[in-house]
Design brief:
Strands 4-5-6-3-9-12-13 form a 7-stranded mixed β-sheet, sandwiched between helices. The chain contains 9 helices and 15 strands. Helices cover 37% and strands 17% of the residues. The chain has 408 residues and is an alpha/beta fold.
């Protein structure tokens, strides 16, 4: 009997010690896990900037514009065109009956890198309290609609709106206080084509040295995205003086010289008025047309109508795309940089867009004028081979802009 209490007491003592050791071991294990987790997290945090730095380095050395189109029905399109609240009827190909939808699924793949995934929320955050203005012609409007459609799908309907005020169209993301504008100025400088609705004139006249009428509208922007090409392709008449002046002089200088002078006026305005510490400036190179089917092996008189696949010839260059005009843009940008260190970033979208003969609105758009019987009998006669279906080619132009703004 005396032995049992002793044995029982020893057992309790041993169990107590065992519980204490087990508890201490458990505490030690938990502490070790917490320490290792903290170390791991700290290493992860320290590595994040390195990862971003590596990605930035990769992108900064990458030629975005050399690559190929790849079919991708997983990550494309970037938005549902039929659900975009602010889609333009000139670009809404699905709405107007296009059945072959393969054009929706082509993704541009650069040779040297992968473009970062387009994150609409990240873009909106980047643009918080900022103003972006697309300035130019209807192809720049094409790009503006693309950007608005990409972003607006992430915004509740009561926190977004579009306002139309003459040449200025404003998209507002209210929660972010972000503004994305399009401003109609097809020649950048003042002209008789500046009315956004009534600009079809028999003779185009340009005030080659006058830009302030337009520029005062977009002077305060944080991001400026310019384009101007097709409207210069005719032999414009140059006006020296004002439209109201009885002593104004007119002359023809030729397309290239007129374009050069217009770009110089634009560059001089940037140099004088843009806040270099605030505003980033981009120029989008010429958007190609596909009006001449013979360029890619079709019969004369054919165009983009009924095309279903991109051009596979990597050397393809359309006859309507003027390399001399592109050089003038590059020279104007280079001079501006050398003269005063002002940086304009060129989005060189021409070659990659050349391949997309099937990406145009073609006949699948609203037609502002009634179609004649002759036109209806020959659809290629009224096919729009200038503007692009959305979703579509302009989305990649905006993808480049996204990469520049968020990573470069």
């Amino acid at each position: 009997m005396n032995g049992r209490p002793v044995l029982f007491g020893s057992s309790l003592k041993n169990k107590g010690m065992g519980i204490q050791l087990s508890f201490q071991l458990l505490v030690a294990i938990i502490t070790a896990v917490l320490v290792l987790t903290a170390l791991s997290m700290s290493r992860g945090i320290s590595q994040v900037p390195k990862l971003v730095e590596t990605q930035i380095s990769s992108l900064s050395s990458c030629n975005f514009y050399s690559g190929k189109w790849v079919f991708d029905n997983q990550s494309r399109p970037l938005y549902n065109g039929t659900n975009c609240s602010f889609m333009d009827d000139g670009m809404a190909c699905q709405k107007f009956g296009r059945k072959n939808l393969n054009y929706l699924y082509w993704k541009w793949q650069p040779n040297d890198c992968d473009l970062p995934r387009f994150n609409a929320t990240a873009m909106l955050e980047k643009l918080r309290n900022k103003r972006v203005v697309y300035v130019g012609d209807s192809l720049n409007r094409n790009q503006w609609v693309s950007m608005v459609c990409i972003l607006e799908s992430e915004i509740p309907s009561h926190l977004k709106y579009v306002n139309y005020n003459g040449s200025l169209v404003t998209f507002k993301a209210i929660e972010y206080n972000a503004t994305i504008d399009f401003y109609w100025a097809p020649l950048l400088v003042e002209s008789n084509c500046d009315d956004p609705s009534y600009h079809r004139v028999d003779e185009r006249i340009v005030r080659i040295d006058s830009i302030e009428k337009h520029a005062r509208i977009w002077k305060d922007a944080d991001v400026l995205v310019f384009n101007s090409y097709l409207w210069w392709r005719l032999n414009l008449k140059v006006l020296w003086g004002s439209f109201e002046s009885a002593n104004a002089k007119y002359e023809y200088l030729g397309m290239l010289r007129t374009y050069e002078l217009g770009l110089q006026t634009w560059a001089d305005w940037l140099d004088t008025h843009v806040n270099r510490t605030k505003t980033r400036v981009f120029f989008v190179s010429l958007s190609p047309t596909h009006n001449r089917g013979e360029d890619w092996g079709k019969a004369n008189g054919q165009n983009c109508y009924d095309e279903a696949e991109p051009i596979s010839n990597r050397e393809y260059w359309g006859s309507d795309s003027d390399p001399e005009m592109m050089k003038l843009v590059e020279v104007a940008i280079k001079k501006l940089n050398e003269k005063s260190g002002f940086k304009v970033e060129l989005l060189n979208i021409t070659q990659l867009s050349e391949y997309r003969k099937e990406g145009h609105s073609s006949i699948y758009r609203k037609h502002w004028d009634p179609l004649t019987k002759e036109q209806l009998a020959n659809p290629s006669s009224y096919a729009d081979c200038i503007h692009w279906c959305l979703p579509g080619v302009p989305d990649i132009w905006n993808h480049f802009l996204y990469a520049h703004l968020l990573y470069l």
